[in-house]
Amino acid sequence: MTRDVVELEESYAKSANIIRGDEKFGIINLPKFYVDFEDYNERNAATDVAKEVERLKEEGVEGLILDLRDNGGGSLKTVVEMAGLFIKDGPIVQVRSGNKQKEVYDDKDERIQWDGPLVVLVNELSASASEILAAAMQDYKRAIVIGSKQTFGKGTVQNVIPLDNIVRSNEHGDLGAIKLTTQKFYRINGGSTQLEGVKSDVVVPR
């Protein structure tokens, strides 16, 4: 087995070719679902993974592996866009805020960038956006999820609110912050990943 690694910046997506005999596969490691908040179109995880998929296609890979191990999550927008690289279109995740009705986040782009064999690697530290992507690929029967028995189980979104914004008094000094759960994710099949995580199709013992 040989690897031809093409690295981007350390925290960004990076890809490699894996050659076994006459077979060639591509693997993309994604440490997190990142965005450039100053210019989303300049850099985000979805567009970076799309570029790596295109590079691997040009290399003639026969299958693709997306490595989400230790990926703690990140941008919801990027995970929806990334899922769209592998399916024609349709719902990716449902989000509920408070007592409101669930809001469905869809991939509306009918283009499929990669329609070949797909594997998603996960472990017990794959969380949040990683679980959304793994669950969507599983529910669409688009990929095989391989790794730990289940992922982390974080199906919620928290917002951090500095207490200084609430208590306006210099005598208290730095009061720290409070973390509030504001949203909950649901799979497109209606199930929740909170605590349950995403169960792998193939469990690989540690």
What does this protein look like?
- There is one protein chain.
- The model is unreliable at 1-9 (pLDDT under 50).
- The protein has 206 residues and is of the alpha/beta class.
- Helices cover 16% and strands 32% of the residues.
- The strands form two sheets. A seven-stranded mixed β-sheet has the order 1-2-3-4-7-8-11, covered by helices on one side.
- The two termini are 21 Å apart.
- The chain has a single domain, classed as 2-enoyl-CoA Hydratase, Chain A, domain 1, CATH 3.90.226.10.
Note the topology.
Elements: E1 2-6, E2 14-20, E3 23-29, H1 45-58, E4 63-67, H2 76-83, E5 90-97, E6 103-107, E7 118-122, H3 129-139, E8 144-147, E9 156-162, E10 177-186, E11 202-203
Parallel strand pairs: 3-4, 4-7, 7-8, 8-11
Antiparallel strand pairs: 1-2, 2-3, 5-6, 5-10, 9-10
Helix pairs in contact: 1-2, 2-3
Q: CATH homologous superfamily?
A: 2-enoyl-CoA Hydratase, Chain A, domain 1
Give the CA-CA distance, first to last residue: 21 Å
CATH topology: 2-enoyl-CoA Hydratase, Chain A, domain 1
Which residue ranges are poorly predicted, with pLDDT under 50 across at least 5 consecutive positions?
1-9
Helix content: 10-25%
Mean pLDDT: 88
Top-tier CATH class: Alpha Beta
Helix-strand topology string: EEEHEHEEEHEEEE
Radius of gyration: 19 Å
Write a concise keyword list for the protein shown above.
about 210 residues; 2-enoyl-CoA Hydratase, Chain A, domain 1; about 15% helix; 7-stranded mixed beta sheet; disordered N terminus; single chain; 4-stranded antiparallel beta sheet; alpha/beta
